[in-house]
Amino acid sequence: MMGNSTYDGKHYGVPLTMNIVGLFANMDLLGQVGYTEIPGTYEEFIACCDALKAAGIIPFGCAGKETWCVTEYLESVIEKSAGADTLNEIFAGKATWNNQDVADAVDTFQGLVNNGYFDPSGIGLTNDEVKNNFMAGKYAFYMNGTWNCADFAANADFKDKVKVGEFPVINADKSKLGQLIGGPSDTLAVAASSPNAEFAAEYTFELGKLICHYGYLDGCGLPAWTPYGDTSSVNELTQTVAGIVAGADTMVLFGDTAMTADSANTYLSYVDQVYGCLLDGKQFIDGLSKDIQ
Amino acid sequence: MSEKSGVREKRKRKTSDAIAIFVFLLPALLLFISILIAPIAVSVYRSMYDWNGFSEGTFIGFNNYIELFTNGSIKFMTSLKNSMILAFFSVFVQLPFALFLALVLGRKPKGERVFLSIFFMPVLISTVVIGQLWLKIYNPDYGLLNRFLDLVHLGQFKHVWVGEVKTALGSIIVPTIWQYVGYHMLLMYAGVKGVSTELREAAMLDGATPWQIDKYVVIPIIKPIIRVSVIFAVTGSLKTYDLVRILTEGGPFQTTEVPSTLLENMLFLRNRYGMGSTISVMLILLCFAFALLITAAFKEKE
Prior knowledge:
By secondary structure, chain A is α+β, with helices and mostly antiparallel strands. Chain A has twelve helices and ten strands. Chain A has helices spanning 27-32, 42-54, 67-82, 84-91, 100-114, 127-135, 149-154, 197-217, 236-246, 255-258, 261-275, 281-291; strands at 6-7, 10-11, 14-15, 19-26, 58-60, 139-145, 162-165, 179-183, 187-188, 250-252. By secondary structure, chain B is mainly alpha-helical. Chain B folds into two domains: 2-41; 63-301, MetI-like (MetI-like fold), CATH 1.10.3720.10. In chain B, helix 3 packs parallel to helix 7 and helix 10 packs antiparallel against helix 13 (273-301). At the A-B interface, helix 11 and helix 12 of A face loops of B.
């Protein structure tokens, strides 16, 4: 849990909370095409998307106006195709983007786009608009951060329709269930130059734990610290996510969070172009290898 | 008084006049240098650095300028192309329409003041409000435009207006033209009103129709105002930012980026102040170049 805020063996921040990318499903819509659970394998998942499409239901909602929303889908596809270690190495700058598995995964993602699984009007919408559409029953699936659990659980009309699961494995030779996108990234830190830095750091640790605890109780995220007391009031969705995380094998931090500001925006630009099918997988890895040093 | 002392006196007066002019101009000159010249000079200097805005930068010569055209994630050429398209529509659609309105209103029709206020109203409204208003019109699900197309059974022409590559730039151009027509109209209207009644009456006595009067008398007289409008329209298109930011945020897929949205991206999202300075230098150069070109083109015509 501390890995994302550790540099050269030293901890520089107190994690507040953590989230992963979840595959949210509107079970009412899935029920219309004969599914009572989120499909567990990639083949079943694609068959489900085809069935939804045939029934006139849009499988995925994704906000094109906010490219980070596209990465929620793309990074999951890359991770479940090329493996979490590959993606971790690339995001950490320890390996180059010039990786054929990544190029193939990008082509797989584009296949989903070209198959018409994504709502075309999502390209011009913000994440809030897409989220509202999902809650209104416009899409069957919505891949996004698990911080949404609180909003979904708080909506009386929607909370019984929604389930959350893990994106299925695409290439079992390189990836497996339990490889997740996410992890703790929000931290509190104390400047070494501040007066009473030691005391402030001690207080920050306690504050971080409290924020984490109450954030978990409210369903805004998973605990980055061991929760205490009675946590039975946590909503079912968040508890399901906690179960998924409990069985996690590897976590890959969100790409635009893991990289420096410049690299992250270069990456987002290429993701945007992939979503628009202006670049294919090969051009994606070639461009990023050239432009991210 | 001898001729020699007269010349000396004249020279002395000239010198004291020159000093007086200099002293009176000095505050304006200082303001001009500190507000305009100095920031431009700093931008040029910073454009040669790899600088994140916080730590000390590294001198990299013209590398930022080269990267501007070679980095696949910095869509500078796309942004320039979009600005040029916007400038084209501003000059060849917006300004003729503004001129038409100014000429019509200049003939003192009934309700002249009312029409003037109506056409000028969009200029007074905040661009953020206009952007939000047009977003509601363009919304693919409940937007006025798609709803209207459904109503008149033209559903096949429905689009995700700000989300499709084919329609996004047009979706920015329409409100931009709509917003600033009133501004240019008012500039030209002031010019039209300044044309003396005697000239109009003389042309009428010679048998000229109202349109002939506009074409041969009014338009040539207000040419300097039209030139200013053209300069404002072109440089305004190069500097455009707000409506793009609200309507498309440079998307879809960065196809509606303009130099100013790129500039914002470099400065505030990427912490690349050196590259941001490079884009601003390019913008300044382009604005100056176009202003000079337009002035030269109008002089040529005269």
